[in-house]
Design brief:
flat, four-stranded antiparallel beta sheet, 65 strands, alpha+beta, five-stranded antiparallel beta sheet
């Protein structure tokens, strides 16, 4: 009977549990539904949800043409162009949009061609020489000519002369122009409804018969790839390669897609994407074709246009809105990819690179590049509820279930239960130590060792634990100590018993979920609802909880990536902390740790992770990280954090003394201008909420000094002199970067006129008088406070808030100065790197305007230099502190309140004339020399 049962189980394993690998996870190319998606419709600001065309201009803005007008999108708002605001729109239906080499925007409508040149709009129709007012296609040849495809023929616009020419050659006369493109030779390829494909080499038009004889239907779209191959999509749904007009075209894919090809483009990997007028879109990779429809995330069935922008985000224009798809940090795999259940728990990568995925209710999945196996109750598992997993030194896979422990030796399953000494059916943990002893833990808190196929209690006497106590993880550290995570505390095994750590022993909570040993051999313990514990060398713990910045106190697992930064799973999702930020907190457990909590915009379907088994997260051999969740198996690519979107910044509005200017006119600004306001907007299409900004303003040859302005999207410049300047605005992700900010920089050149010479002489005299007064205050300020902020070059710092003619009562000034001194010298608020003018004003109970007045007028400084002066003085002390002898310069910078090492070094040198290292060596040398020359005390 046993033989028959074994045969049946083996037969089930060989047949029913083996799945074609293609039905499961594709580790190379993502299907569309695994990309992160954002959708915009008329409810989100589009003039109409039926979108016909989409482009990106040189500034990064997205332009769309819809059935009810055109719009430009800077990620914050849509600017709409239609009949209600512009007389040139005789029809709101915009079929095509083009940006030419000069940055002008051309819009083809059903009632003429509209040119937007700056703020000026011009309409062209039949009266200007167009064959028809219905515009179907537009193309710029890069030589100053715009080609215009209309409903009744071809025309061109010459940018140099501003004239339109209509072509009456027999090859195109009165033909409906469907599409145009330039081929690899720069020749014009035209598709017409009546004549088929027509070519123009700059001299004559001709019809390539070999191409037209093969293509049986009208070509509705044309595209030339980065390799120079030209593709044609037809009204009947085929795509042909027209790369060589001297030979017959070949199909880029077999058969027909059953719907007209409306557009073709190419991604960074060379795959072709084609929009279909009624049936979604397809991706063509070699001979492989994948079709995507609304179920995959498309907002509408009819795809009219496809765009890959310069950040390689995929934009799709449909009859029901536009969608932007991008490859997030995470990919989520679900039952749609072949998982047996979306509720994932234990994850294991074996020595052969195979992936084992345990689920709640769906058994276990074994995934390789070639095939997938499923183990469940029907194939021999005692339960479909899977817990912990482990691979022993012989390559056996041990599986914890709700009704026993299972071993898979590569051929068959062996079930261990009460017949093998297990006192309970629910198995919580399994592990093989360095002596090849297999350990297991069960419900009831039992801990057992396997000897001669029988499990025996490690403890001679039963531990006094509740019956529902659970052993969650057994782990041997690199020091050879076996640690056990239980719901009643952390156990440290010894020959004669164990030590237990619980709340009364300094652990933050009794319910331990996991144990993790980092790359530096430090031990971390996570708990259920009590945060994280770091085990110190003296046996005590440092606690990290939600009050310290964690998004949750229920932490399931910890991993380190290849950069040694930390990733955590929790009841609120996956989050990330830089190693440097954790080390800083461990050295001084105060303040909040910068944490990046990931969400749907990063590619996660469901935020809630699962835990309580081991391993409940995994770092694969290829560096990818795997996490379980209630919504599937989550894969993270840490390398994508290095390429996180830091959006470009576009200047939206410039005002000089309250008067609006075009940004390109920031030349020869009047010498007597007192204030420049620059409003900008980040092209934050990913909706990254962690984006902040910094700016640098100074002469072109001056070293950049970056001023943080947080999330404020405006800069105010004052107190500038005549000359040439460059304003640089930088965006960066506050949760992911460290050291010098590496975000995207947007430069803006500014030039200020010189005043007439008589006025300059008068100003010079007044300046000398003013400097005499200022010198007195600066001298007094330096003497009383011993700060170096007056040595820092006075830039523009924070936006000035006080009008020149505003005064503050002297008594109020004196009181503010008193509170300010206490806040900076006693409370040391400058150590907070996020200290801002409003925060400081609130702390000393005054208004932002009053504080700005006191710093600007009374202390003759600005907020930026004022605060950094204190930070430099603090740093000078720390550099000479013996406790910092074994710490690096970055630690001094952070502990002084600087966020960036570059800013710290720059400011320190401007203040002292030395680098921090040079300063430390110089002062220590002076102290040593002084001691050498001091006379010895006589006793």
């Amino acid at each position: 009977m046993k033989v028959i049962k074994c045969f049946v189980i083996s037969f089930l394993l060989i047949t029913a549990s083996v799945i074609d690998a293609e039905t499961f996870i594709s580790w190379t190319e993502k299907p569309l539904h695994q990309y992160v998606r954002n959708v915009w419709r008329s409810a989100n600001g589009l003039p109409h949800s039926s979108v016909n065309t989409i482009i990106q201009d040189r500034y990064g803005r997205i332009w769309v043409g819809t059935d009810e007008g055109a719009a430009s999108f800077d990620s914050s708002e849509f600017t709409i162009y239609d009949r209600s605001g512009y007389d040139v729109f005789r029809s709101n239906k915009v079929r095509v949009i083009l940006e030419d080499e000069q940055g002008n925007i051309w819009m083809g409508t059903e009632a003429g061609l509209i040119l937007k040149k700056g703020k000026k709009f011009t309409l062209y129709d039949e009266s200007d020489g167009l064959p028809s007012k219905l515009i179907r296609s537009l193309l710029s040849d890069g030589k100053g000519k715009i080609w215009i495809g209309t409903d009744k023929g071809l025309a061109s616009f010459d940018n140099s002369s501003g004239t339109i020419r209509s072509y009456r050659e027999k090859e195109l006369s009165d033909a409906r122009i469907m599409a145009m493109v330039l081929d690899r030779n720069g020749d014009l390829v035209i598709s017409s409804e009546q004549k088929g494909i027509v070519e123009y080499d700059g001299v004559r038009f001709f019809i390539p018969e070999k191409i037209n004889n093969v293509i049986p239907s009208v070509v509705t779209s044309l595209f030339t790839s980065s390799q120079g191959d030209t593709y044609a999509g037809t009204i009947t749904g085929e795509i042909y390669d027209l790369s060589d007009i001297s030979v017959k075209p070949v199909k880029a894919s077999e058969g027909s897609f059953g719907s007209a090809v409306s557009s073709i483009t190419q991604d960074k990997d060379g795959n072709l994407w084609a929009g279909l007028s009624r049936l979604g879109m397809v991706r063509i990779s070699g001979r492989k074709v994948e079709r995507f429809e609304t179920v995959d995330g498309l907002p509408g069935k009819s795809v009219r246009d496809i765009l890959y922008d310069r950040q390689m985000f995929l934009w799709v224009a449909t009859d029901d809105g536009i969608a932007m798809f991008h490859d997030g940090i995470f990919s989520t795999y679900t039952t749609r990819e072949g998982l047996s259940s979306n509720v994932v728990y234990g994850i294991l990568e074996d020595s052969k690179g195979g992936l084992w995925v345990g689920t709640r209710g769906g058994g276990i999945n074994y995934i390789t590049d070639k095939k997938t196996k499923r183990f469940n109750e029907g194939s021999g598992l005692p339960s479909n509820l899977i817990g912990g997993l482990h691979e022993d030194s012989s390559g056996n896979i041990w599986i914890c279930t709700a009704t026993g422990l299972v071993k898979w030796d590569g051929r068959r399953l062996s079930v261990y239960d009460e017949r093998h000494g297990l006192p309970a059916k629910v198995i919580g943990a399994v592990y093989e130590d360095s002596r090849n002893t297999v350990w297991t833990g069960t419900i009831g808190g039992r801990i057992l060792m396997l000897k001669d196929r029988q499990f025996k209690d490690f403890f001679h006497e039963l531990r006094p634990v509740p019956p529902d106590s659970m052993v969650r993880q057994i782990y041997e550290s690199r020091a050879g100590i076996i640690w056990i995570a239980t719901s009643e505390g952390l156990l440290k095994l010894k020959r004669d018993g164990y030590d237990i750590y619980s709340r009364k022993d300094g652990l933050s909570g009794d319910s331990v979920l996991s144990i993790y040993e980092d790359n530096d051999r430090n031990l971390w313990i996570t708990t259920d609802d009590s945060g994280i514990n770091f085990l110190k060398e003296d046996g005590s713990f440092i606690h990290i909880r939600s009050r310290d910045g964690l998004p949750s106190d229920s932490i399931f697992s910890i991993l380190q990536d290849d950069n040694e930064d930390f990733w955590f799973t929790s009841s609120r999702g996956i989050f990330f902390i830089r190693k440097s930020d954790i080390n800083k907190f461990l050295e001084n457990p105060e303040g909040k740790i910068p944490v990046r909590l990931f969400g749907q915009s990063d590619g996660i379907r469901k935020m809630e992770n699962t835990g309580g088994v081991y391993p409940s997260s995994l770092k694969r051999k290829n560096g990818k990280l795997m996490f379980p969740s209630t919504g599937g198996l989550i894969e993270a690519d840490p390398e994508k954090l290095q390429n996180i979107n830091e959006p470009e910044v576009i200047i939206k509005e410039v005002s000089i003394d309250g008067k609006r200017y075009e940004k390109m006119k920031l030349e020869n600004i009047p010498y007597n201008s007192s204030q420049i306001d620059i409003r900008f907007v980040p092209l934050n299409y990913l909706r990254n909420e962690n984006i902040a900004f910094a700016y640098s303003f100074g002469p072109p040859d001056k070293e950049d000094v970056w001023n943080d302005i947080g999330t404020v999207e405006m800069i105010t410049l004052r107190d500038f002199k005549p000359g040439k300047y460059i304003l640089k605005i930088k965006s960066f992700d506050t949760k992911l970067r460290e050291g010098e900010k590496k975000g995207t920089i947007t430069p803006l050149e500014i030039s200020i006129q010189r005043s007439p010479w008589p006025e300059r002489v008068l100003v010079g005299i007044l300046f000398l008088l003013a400097m005499t007064t200022v010198g007195y205050f600066l001298h007094s300020h330096k003497k009383n406070k011993k700060l170096c902020s007056e040595k820092l070059e006075n830039g523009v710092g924070e936006a000035e808030l006080i009008p020149e003619d505003q005064k503050v009562d002297p008594e109020i000034v004196a009181e503010v100065v008193k509170r300010l001194k206490n806040a900076m010298e006693e409370k040391k608020l400058f150590i907070d790197p996020d200290l801002s003018l409003p925060v400081l004003a609130k702390e000393i109970k005054t208004t932002t305007n009053t504080l700005s007045y006191v710093i600007n007028r009374h202390l003759q400084s600005n907020f930026y230099n004022f605060v950094n002066g204190y930070r430099i003085e603090e740093a000078k002390g720390l550099l000479l502190d013996k406790e910092y002898d074994n710490k690096n310069i970055l630690a001094v910078a952070y502990d002084s309140g600087f966020r960036s090492k570059t800013t710290f070094n720059t400011m320190f040198k401007k203040c002292t004339g030395l680098t921090p290292s040079e300063y430390k060596k110089t002062v220590e040398k002076e102290i040593f020399s002084k001691k050498q020359h001091e006379p010895e005390n006589e006793n």
